[in-house]
Design brief:
about 425 residues; alpha/beta; Rossmann fold; Dihydrodipicolinate Reductase, domain 2; Alpha-Beta Plaits; 3 domains; twelve-stranded mixed β-sheet; 20 strands; about 35% helix; elongated
Length: about 425
């Protein structure tokens, strides 16, 4: 057994950072035994000394200065858990440029600055591990980077935000409105006080950018990923989608088109018999289709202190094993030794082709459905199924339809024309099929 001592420097003692510190301190014997070398928390850094005391970190192993980790030549692995873009970016690049291995859970940082970070890691031949950045405790990154390394990934469909999945699950089961369920999610700790990143799809888009980079070896510009959240979804749309045989989920959708990819985040109709339709509550799942492996489902807890701590510590162990074996950069950051890490081209959203759900709130008059159908036909959009809900003597009624496959550009043009009709009471609701 090697007697090498692998020293870890920890930046950030928040929810996950505190969990990592406790695991390194309390499970040191088990971790070291599995590693075949001593694994040590050499230094932890945070601006709040009280957090170090809460986790039982000895005073001599704590600092409020990041330089205590970044400038220490004895530290082998830097774990960045402070979040955000800066100073996290500068800290990570300094660690890499010093030849240190790095692990992070910072999905926003990798989505925005992955090209720069991964290029620096290749240049300095160090490992970058980021399992906790996507899917919490699910071994999603490792599966794509290593387990499926021989496959060409054709497509991915993912439920990658537990907050949104919890909200949509409750709206489906109870028929409650979005704002009411959001307040409940906040009270239970599933949603932040400011839920914008989650409910508007931004968190999911960051995760999709990382998945796209792993699959293609190139980094998408986050601004090129079409992103739409769930705040406009109403219980009536979930109910009516169910009558057509669908569940509504916030999906990250990626399809590999060769030199470019289709990458989008939005509420989507999932057939009730699809495996993703059964994913409930704050859980995450990624459905992968590879050219040789076929269909694979990765499922588990996508957030929370313990699952995310587990993912970060899995990365620490992986990096430490590389150090002990003398090959710290055994696995390239994106899993592809030939990848240059350039920019990935995203197909324009206007070119997307799928089925669509429309809900028109229209005056209850003869010929309205024919008028709407004529506009759709003029744009070469064919109706597959239609439901008209009830009759009203005093107000508008819902006309709901699901189309055959159509182009996004044509759909947008048709809806603009439909919404200008005098018989339409409010803008048409749209949900795309997965």
């Amino acid at each position: 057994m090697s007697q090498r001592c692998v020293k870890v420097g920890l930046l950030g003692l928040g929810t996950v950072g505190g969990g990592v510190a406790r695991m390194l301190l309390e499970e040191k014997q088990r971790l070291s035994s599995r590693l075949g070398a001593e694994l040590v928390l050499e230094r932890a850094v945070d601006l709040d000394p009280a957090l170090a005391r809460d986790q039982g970190i000895p005073p001599e192993r704590f600092s409020t200065d990041a330089g205590a980790v970044l400038d220490d030549p004895e530290i082998d692995i830097v774990v960045e858990l402070i979040g955000g873009l800066e100073p996290a970016r500068s800290f990570m690049l300094k660690a890499i440029n010093s030849g240190k291995q790095v692990a992070t859970a910072n999905k926003m940082l990798l989505a925005h600055h992955g090209v720069e970070i991964f290029a620096a890691a290749r240049q300095h031949r160090v490992g970058v591990a980021f399992e906790a950045a996507v899917g919490g405790g699910i071994p999603l990154i490792r599966s794509l980077r290593e387990g499926l390394a021989a496959d060409c990934i054709v497509s991915c469909l993912g439920i990658l935000n537990g907050t949104c999945n919890y909200i949509l699950s409750r709206m489906t089961s109870e028929g409650a409105p979005f704002q009411e369920v959001l307040a409940e999610a906040q009270a239970k700790g599933y949603a932040e006080a400011d839920p914008t990143m989650d409910v508007e799809g931004l968190d999911t888009a960051h995760k999709l950018a990382i998945v796209a980079a792993l699959i293609t070896g190139a980094q998408p510009d986050i601004a090129d990923i079409y992103t739409e959240g769930i705040s406009a979804i109403e219980p009536v749309d979930i109910q009516l989608a169910g009558e057509f045989g669908y569940r509504v989920k916030l999906l990250a959708i990626l399809r590999n088109l060769g030199g470019k990819v289709e990458a989008r985040v939005h509420p989507a109709l999932v057939p009730a018999d699809h495996v993703l339709a059964s994913i409930e509550g704050p859980f995450n799942a990624l459905h992968i289709h590879g050219d040789w492996v076929g269909d694979v489902l990765l499922y588990g807890q996508g957030a929370g202190r313990r699952p995310t701590t587990s993912a970060v510590m899995g990365d620490v162990m992986d990096l430490a094993r590389g150090i002990v074996a003398g090959c710290p950069d055994r696995v390239p950051p994106l899993g592809d030794a030939g990848a240059e890490g350039g920019r990935l081209e995203i197909a324009p959203m206007d070119d997307t082709a799928c089925q669509y759900y429309f809900r028109c709130l229209a005056l209850d008059q003869p010929g309205v459905l024919a008028t709407v159908s004529r506009v759709l036909a003029d744009h070469r959009i064919s109706i597959k199924s239609v439901i008209q809900k009830g009759r009203s003597s005093s107000g508008p009624v819902n006309i709901v339809m699901v189309t055959h496959e159509a182009r996004e550009k044509a759909v947008r043009a048709a809806l603009k024309e439909i919404d200008q009709l005098p018989v339409i009471a409010e803008p048409t609701r749209l949900i795309r099929r997965a």
